[in-house]
Amino acid sequence: MIKILPSEITPEHVFLSRRKFMVGAGSLAVGAMALSACGGMGTPAGGAAPVGLAAPASVISDLPAALAHAEPFASKETDELGDKLNPYNDITNYNNYYEFSLEKDGVAPLSKDFTILPWSIEITGLVNNPQTITYEDILKKFTQEERIYRLRCVEAWSMVIPWVGFPVGDLLKAADPKAEAKFVHFTSVMRPEEMPGQNGYSGIEWPYVEGLRIDEAMNPLAIFATGMYGKPLVPANGAPFRLIVPWKYGFKSAKGIVKIELSDTMPQSTWMKAAPNEYGFYANVNPAVNHPRWSQATERRIGEGGRRDTLPFNGYADEVAALYAGMDLQENF
Length: 333
Prior knowledge:
single chain; alpha+beta; Sulfite Oxidase, Chain A, domain 2; seven-stranded mixed sheet; five-stranded mixed sheet; 19% strand; disordered N terminus
């Protein structure tokens, strides 16, 4: 059974008391926080529940300065399998984000001036408590945890990333889903004046839409990420608010989310519309099922030579395989 060991971290973009995480001259420092580096287990080392402090608005307003002044920090150097974390520089400069560019090394320069604050997320549909929540409120209301996860792209490359975020289920519970809600739709930001790819790539229908079954979204491994390496997310990685579903191919983890809708119907995601013969709804990592144009049996870890075997469900089978009991796992696309 895969066990993701807990440890501690203070995310710089939420709790800025440690000197190495100071946002800049004049910014407020707030109390440190014990946080878990877990894959679905919401407790830090020692078994105590996470303890959190709200980040005041004056600190949140200084977040852009943190991107320039803070050093990347993670609580561990490897994931639970002993795989080394990818360097912060690699993670922030090798990205699929077609809203900005079709080139992986083109995303960072084209997105660096993207406006990430103010930001709000609308939660609507089959919920008893529809609401619009701001990024600031998210940092105040939801305990942020480090989650060291493997990211497996459908293109057969992979990384190991120390995300900072909180379980998707925590936000959905706050909205109080109705009994008939079966699916969760995630809609990304539409801002062509800042996202040049939304003006130029006709193969994609914007805005970007993805979806999960509600039981998938409620699985403790699924998180909303607000940071990585103890720092706020940069625009190239989906700042300020994105989805992470580590047992699925990376395109399922929508970036720059502005709307979450619960419904009783399966969403037609962006890639399902663009290439229905290649991309389906579930897209669980499965080395036994090839993409129509390449093998999925192995992957290329960024920064390594050669290739490594791909693990079923990206190595998280013990935590998520039961979600698909009785289904034909050969049907991923």
